[in-house]
Automatic annotation (TrEMBL):
SUPFAM superfamilies reported for this sequence: MFS general substrate transporter
NADP as UniProt keyword: no
PANTHER family with a match to the protein in the record: EXPORT PROTEIN, MAJOR FACILITATOR SUPERFAMILY MULTIDRUG TRANSPORTER MFSC
The name this protein goes by in its record: MFS transporter
Source species taxonomy: Bacteria, Bacillati, Actinomycetota, Actinomycetes, Micrococcales
Origin superkingdom: Bacteria
Sequence intervals crossing the membrane: 24-50, 62-81, 93-113, 119-137, 149-170, 176-197, 209-229, 235-258, 279-302, 308-331, 343-365, 371-395, 407-428, 440-459
Record keywords, A-Z: Membrane, Transmembrane, Transmembrane helix
Domain annotation Major facilitator superfamily (MFS) profile: ranges: 24-463
Bilayer disposition of the protein: Multi-pass membrane protein
Subcellular location: Cell membrane
Pfam families referenced in this protein's UniProt entry, alphabetically: MFS_1 (PF07690)
UniProt cross-references to InterPro entries, sorted A to Z: MFS, MFS_dom, MFS_trans_sf
Length: 472
């Protein structure tokens, strides 16, 4: 009898059977890796995209924020769908849709078409991220869960920072369009592995989709982001700017009001009554706003002010990638043993100091003396932070809410990055130069320090772990 696809998917390249736990981890890493990689790989290609399609800084911001906008607005709905319909099914749909929209980005003939394709691509990413992480938290427990989350955060963190490396090589040697076309390879591999992964049948009734919540969230995020990006070109006095801004703020207030009363909310506000969940998400705002804004401006600065090629600008982030690869799992394991508080407090401070070191990177920029040491420090800080932060947030809620819990945390992270990138033009001052770059680095450092301070003051160590409780 011929082998089934699920049987073949259980056998690795060496012919050995892959255990379910190992397959879950590989699938979760690959599915999230492609989403995070695509969110960051485009950054180094922005100058090339604007040269070919026009649009300047505004188009560059929209190419990044179009993806983050739909991801941040819909990731909460996707988390609920993951809990209701099953992680495997939602992952499969997300992977197929991500492949289709990646090809749409690759062939986009003009800037607006690319932005539209990026928005649709963010919808697919919203299906991938919470489902993959929830698959881990529902499969592993105890110290094994800490190690698995550490591996997941390490590799997805690497995707977020190694993207510019791969992107730079493709931009300089071929075309920025290949950045999107190459997504079909890891997607195909993940779909094969996913074919061998079974999931228990859901017994609870299917909850209706929170359509009102999704709509209000999309308007509440889209309006202010549109205004923040376009105000540099049109000014705050323009009704095209201030009307979406006001409508967006009202819609976001309406979203919070609705979520407190909806019978099936896509963001259960009750989750935030758990101290570590609420504080962890507050720390997430500072850390991921800083991370997205810092690397967005850093990559543009090296090319447009420093005069480096896309490849050189991409390789400048490799030290952070190496630090994450070496230490993320270690700190995830340590957080599982001693509690996340100390790591969440120290890590952002270390990363913030690394960004402050970049203040010395003025033309003519010496990559080895002025950039590499700073990025090493940033990478160490992120390695200390990311796994304990994820563990603190998801370890504080019941496993049956893992999907929506991971969705909320990822939504907070994406929205923080979305708003931070939208504010880039305002902080820079219109044209990216040395002064504007240094101003951004100071803002990024302050955001990191704030994330560390919030963690130190608010996070509590779970009972039974070695780390002592902080004083009241």
């Amino acid at each position: 009898m011929p082998a089934r696809a699920s049987d073949l998917a259980s056998i690795g390249l060496t012919g050995r059977v892959i255990t379910r736990e190992r397959r879950v981890l590989i699938v979760a890493i690959l599915a999230s890796f492609v989403a995070f990689l695509d969110g960051s790989i485009v950054t180094v290609a922005l100058p090339a995209i604007s040269r070919e399609l026009g649009g300047g800084l505004v188009l560059q911001q929209w190419v990044v924020d179009g993806y983050l906008l739909s991801l941040g607005a819909l990731i909460l709905v996707a988390g609920s769908l993951s809990d209701t319909f099953g992680r495997v099914r939602v992952l499969r749909i997300g992977l197929v849709w991500f492949g289709i929209t990646s090809l749409a980005c690759m062939v986009a003939p003009w800037g607006s078409a690319l932005v539209l394709a990026r928005v649709l691509q963010g919808v697919a990413a919203a299906l991938l991220v919470p489902s993959s992480l929830a698959l881990i938290t529902s499969t592993f427990s105890g110290a094994a869960q800490g190690r698995a989350i550490g591996a997941w955060t390490g590799w997805t963190g690497i995707a977020g920072i190694m993207g510019p490396v791969l992107g730079g090589i493709l931009v300089d040697t071929a075309s920025w369009r290949l950045l999107f076309g190459m997504n079909v390879i890891p997607i195909a591999i993940t779909l094969v592995l996913l074919a061998g992964l079974d999931e228990p049948v859901r017994t609870r009734p299917v909850a209706p989709v929170d359509v009102w919540g999704a709509g209000l969230a999309a308007i509440g995020l889209g309006g202010p982001v549109f205004a923040l990006i376009e105000q540099g070109r049109l000014g705050w006095a323009s009704p095209v700017v201030f009307v979406p801004f006001v409508v967006g703020l009202l819609a976001f207030a309406g979203f919070l009001w609705w979520e407190a009363r909806a019978p099936h909310p896509m963001m259960p506000l009750g989750l935030f009554t758990n101290r570590n969940f609420g504080v962890g998400n507050l720390a997430t705002v500072g850390v991921y706003a800083a991370l997205n804004l810092g690397f967005f401006v850093f990559t543009l600065y090296l090319q447009q002010v420093g005069g480096f090629s896309a490849t050189a600008a991409g390789f400048a982030g490799i030290p952070a990638t190496v630090m994450l690869l070496l230490f993320a799992t270690l700190f995830g394991t340590l957080a599982g043993r001693y509690g996340p508080r100390m790591f969440m407090a120290v890590g952002p401070v270390v990363a913030g100091l690394g960004f402050l070191l970049l203040l010395a990177a003025v033309p003519p920029i010496d990559l080895w003396a002025q950039v590499v040491p700073a990025i090493v420090v940033v990478g160490l800080g992120l390695a200390i932070t990311v796994a304990p932060l994820t563990s603190a947030v998801l370890g504080s809620i019941p496993s049956e809410q893992a999907g929506i819990g991971s969705a909320v945390n990822n939504a907070v992270a994406r929205v923080a990055g979305l708003i931070a990138v939208a504010l880039a033009g305002t902080i820079i001052g219109g044209t990216l130069d040395v002064t504007g770059f240094q101003r951004v680095m100071v803002v990024v450092a302050v955001l990191m320090f704030a994330g560390g301070a919030v963690s130190w003051l608010g996070i509590r160590t779970p009972a039974g772990l070695a780390a002592p409780e902080p004083p009241e």
